[in-house]
Write a structure and sequence with these properties.
274 residues; alpha/beta; five-stranded parallel β-sheet; Cobalt-precorrin-4 Transmethylase, domain 1; Methyltransferase, Cobalt-precorrin-4 Transmethylase, Domain 2; 2 domains; five-stranded mixed β-sheet
Length: 274
């Protein structure tokens, strides 16, 4: 590292779950000052177009399942270090909140390794955004006193004993990145004796104009939505509170199947670093 270069604080910020108006004032301020923005796929293009300077370098370094164009974490780490050590102001912009299923630890470790100063700015995580825009309180008196954030992005991720605990709890269960495994999820909970008053709400593209919510009693889910292909990103809420959606919904389902977050394509830079 050139000792004469003054390193700027690298900003790791959450952009919120989709609706560009949910981004924080503090994140907007740093985006306006950034020389380089390294952004996830699940960040609204409106945020980038509206708040990032035209002279700034914007690098798309997102993840998408089963598709080319996903950027491996080691390349994201390399990009952070490369531009930060040049003395540039770098903003690492993540969808939702930076601390929930976001590989934050990997990036903090590499920044510490190279003694790069940083600041972490939280954002609205997808679970909270999805619940609010679906009219579902994640906790509510006589319904649930706690909420758990989980993921089932691949089969076998949850141990059998833990399925028993999840089926028995009164906690609200929120599953990230689990749309492809919703059938497996509901089957496991039913097999382990989850109560009949539990509902499921599957929320596609939450907080965006394309948001769609599918809600029903969990024990009816297999007959209604089995083998359905959900549009990513998808949040799944399970518990008594999910049954409140029909009563308190305030946002109509979209009739469009358009993708709010466009697929990413492999760039020349990714090819060179692979």
């Amino acid at each position: 590292m050139n000792q004469n270069i003054q390193l700027q604080k690298l900003i790791i910020a959450g952009a919120g779950p989709g609706d560009p108006e949910l981004v924080t004032v503090k994140t907007v301020r740093h985006l306006r000052e950034a020389d380089v923005v390294i952004t996830d796929r699940l960040v609204s293009e409106v945020i980038l177009d509206k708040y990032v300077r035209k002279t700034a370098l914007v690098l798309h370094a997102g993840k998408q399942r089963y598709k080319e164009g996903s950027t491996p974490q080691y390349i994201i780490n390399e990009l952070l270090v490369e531009y930060a050590l040049q003395g540039k102001k770098v903003v690492r912009l993540k969808g939702g909140d930076v601390s929930v299923f976001s590989n934050l630890l990997d990036e903090l470790q590499v920044l510490n390794k190279y003694q790069i100063p940083y600041e972490i700015i939280p954002g609205i995580t997808a679970a909270c955004g999805a619940a609010a825009y679906a009219g579902i309180p994640l906790t509510a008196r006589n319904h649930s006193n706690a909420v758990r954030f989980l993921t089932l992005h691949k089969s076998g991720l949850i141990e059998p004993e833990y399925w028993k605990e999840l089926a028995a709890t009164d906690d609200t269960l929120v599953f990230y990145m689990s749309g492809d495994h919703s059938d497996e999820l509901s089957d496991h909970l039913l097999q382990h004796g989850i109560k009949s008053d539990r509902f499921i709400a599957v929320i596609e593209q939450a907080t965006t104009p394309m948001q769609t919510v599918f809600s029903c009693p969990l024990n009816e889910y297999a007959g209604r939505n089995r083998k359905r292909n959900y549009i990513s990103p998808t949040i799944i809420i399970i518990g008594k509170v999910a049954g409140l959606h029909e009563q308190f919904r305030w946002k109509a389902n979209s009739e469009s199947e358009e993708l709010y977050f466009k697929p990413i394509k492999k760039t020349q830079q990714q090819e060179e670093r692979a």
